[in-house]
Design goal:
This protein has about 170 residues and is of the alpha/beta class. It has a single domain, classed as Flavodoxin domain (Rossmann fold). The chain has 6 helices and 8 strands, in the order βαβαβββαβαββαα. The strands form 2 sheets. Strands 1, 2, 3, 6, 7 and 8 form a 6-stranded parallel beta sheet that branches. The protein has a two-stranded antiparallel ribbon with strand order 4-5. The protein binds flavin mononucleotide (FMN).
């Protein structure tokens, strides 16, 4: 089973990206979680250059099509989703790569409720199939924690394990 993980942050020290790498460590044999590294390569969405899809867009589209499910973790900026993840999703509307795609939404920040709900609304409008059992909010922030510290934290590992379990029965 191939899971594609999309982080809505381009920051080198991103909590969302770190959480997705920790998720990859929790995945059992037979499930591979790949954290996508190319969202920063996407041009800003512009319908005028949509056809044919620019190369970076085509690469993302192919990665989504090849995945059994997609996990998204994105920061909240000014009560909205990050431009990084919204830009990526806007590119994927026209090529319909999210239609019927199982999607898990993972929220690294317990207080970031606005972006989380907005992200859910967007992917639902794109006809993705949100997996409720795999869409979870961390109970505590991971600010300042390394990937190893996340993986040693029982509550965080519990959440990540539930995400994995939800994805397995998607
Ligand atoms: C410009 C800006 C706006 C932000 N707005 C919010 C916000 O509205 N709500 C919130 O919970 N956090 C907000 N934050 C905090 C970020 O969501 C937080 O730093 C998050 O960890 C960034 O994700 P990353 O570590 O994956 O880069 C904001 C941060 C920045 C830089």
């Amino acid at each position: 089973m191939n899971i594609l993980a999309l982080s809505g942050s381009l920051r080198a020290a991103s909590e969302n990206t770190r959480l997705l790498h920790a998720l990859a460590q929790v995945a059992p044999a037979g499930m591979r979680v790949v954290v996508y590294a190319g969202l920063g390569e996407l041009p800003l969405f512009n319908p005028d250059i949509e056809l044919p899809n620019p190369p970076a867009v085509e690469t993302l589209r192919a990665a989504i099509n090849a995945a059994d499910a997609v996990v998204i973790a994105s920061p909240e900026y000014a009560h909205g989703v990050s431009a990084v993840i919204k830009n990526a999703l806007d590119w994927m509307v026209g090529n319909e790569s999210f239609v019927n795609k199982p999607v898990a939404l993972l929220n690294a920040a317990p207080r970031a409720t606005h972006a989380y709900l907005a992200l859910r609304e967007t992917v639902t409008m794109m006809s993705a199939r949100v997996i409720d059992d795999a869409s979870l909010v961390l109970t505590q922030p991971i600010t300042g924690m390394t990937e190893d510290e996340i993986l040693c934290h029982p509550e965080h590992v519990h959440v990540l394990s539930r995400v994995i379990a939800g994805l397995r029965v998607k």
